[in-house]
């Protein structure tokens, strides 16, 4: 398998961490967003909307969405299980992965896109919207803090893909000075320490 990725972007990292947890071997090609490598006609043959990551199989087939890639790997390499072992657990993992995507990763990415100097001159920015998203994230931190006081991981008592999504989102938030503070969110901080100590977090 061949993974097209940017080492600094959160969605490719989600896939790399997932593959590391599975112990799956793969090769990589760096497609650096800073150099607009994702906008080239050659890369757009892999993904017409110029987003990362892209997984290319040996037979030339491609998958273009992070969770689609992870689900494929889950099916082809079922151990360790990261999407849920029974109907209830699968539903919990799906729910919390979506929460992590929609309530953390998406607003954090919007703060970055709309307020960070990296994107000045590259895209149209709406700083006011970025500020609104920063306020939303603060509220969601409080919610995740409450939830993580009830269990060790997002979807239950073991590490799943939902934790991967949330970890990658929160680590990416540091670029925009969005950080967990143990004094105000001790449960969230303790969870982050647990997931960050896993070898896969370095992928």
What does this structure look like?
The chain is an alpha+beta fold and 203 residues long. It has 2 domains: 75 residues, 3-Layer(aba) Sandwich (Glutaredoxin); 116 residues, Glutathione S-transferase Yfyf (Class Pi), Chain A, domain 2 (Up-down Bundle), CATH 1.20.1050.10. It contains 7 helices and 4 strands, in the order βαβαββααααα. Helix 1 runs parallel beside helix 3, helix 1 packs antiparallel against helix 6 and helix 4 packs antiparallel against helix 5. The chain is globular.
What does this entry show, briefly?
The protein is of the alpha+beta class and 203 residues long. It is built from seven helices and four strands, in the order βαβαββααααα.
List the defining traits of the structure above:
203 residues, alpha+beta, Glutaredoxin, Glutathione S-transferase Yfyf (Class Pi), Chain A, domain 2, 4-stranded mixed β-sheet, 50% helix
> Which geometry do the CA atoms define?
globular
The average pLDDT is 98
The CATH topology name of the largest domain reads: Glutathione S-transferase Yfyf (Class Pi), Chain A, domain 2
User: What is the CATH architecture term of the largest domain?
Assistant: Up-down Bundle
- H/E series: EHEHEEHHHHH
Please work out how many helical segments DSSP would assign: 7
Topology of this protein?
Elements: E1 2-5, H1 10-22, E2 27-30, H2 41-44, E3 54-56, E4 62-63, H3 66-76, H4 87-115, H5 127-147, H6 161-173, H7 186-196
Parallel strand pairs: 1-2
Antiparallel strand pairs: 1-3, 3-4
Helix pairs in contact: 1-3, 1-6, 4-5, 4-6
């Amino acid at each position: 398998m061949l993974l097209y990725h940017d080492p600094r972007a959160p969605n490719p990292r989600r896939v790399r961490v997932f593959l590391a947890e599975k112990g799956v071997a793969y090769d990589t090609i760096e497609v650096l967003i800073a150099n607009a490598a994702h906008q080239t006609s050659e890369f757009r043959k892999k993904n017409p909307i110029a987003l990362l990551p892209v997984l290319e199989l040996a037979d030339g087939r491609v998958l273009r969405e992070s969770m689609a890639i992870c689900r494929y790997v889950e099916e082809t390499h079922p151990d360790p299980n990261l999407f849920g072992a029974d109907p209830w657990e699968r539903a919990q993992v799906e729910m919390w992965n979506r929460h992590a995507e929609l309530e953390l990763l998406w607003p954090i990415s919007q703060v970055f896109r709309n307020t960070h100097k990296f994107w000045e001159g590259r895209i149209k920015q709406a700083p006011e919207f970025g500020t609104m998203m920063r306020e939303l994230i603060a509220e969601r931190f409080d919610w995740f803090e409450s939830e993580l006081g009830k269990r060790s991981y997002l979807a239950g008592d073991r590490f799943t893909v939902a934790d991967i999504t949330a970890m990658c989102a929160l680590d990416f938030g540091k670029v925009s000075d969005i950080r967990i503070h143990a004094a105000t969110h001790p449960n969230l901080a303790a969870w982050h320490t647990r997931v960050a100590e896993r070898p896969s977090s370095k992928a």
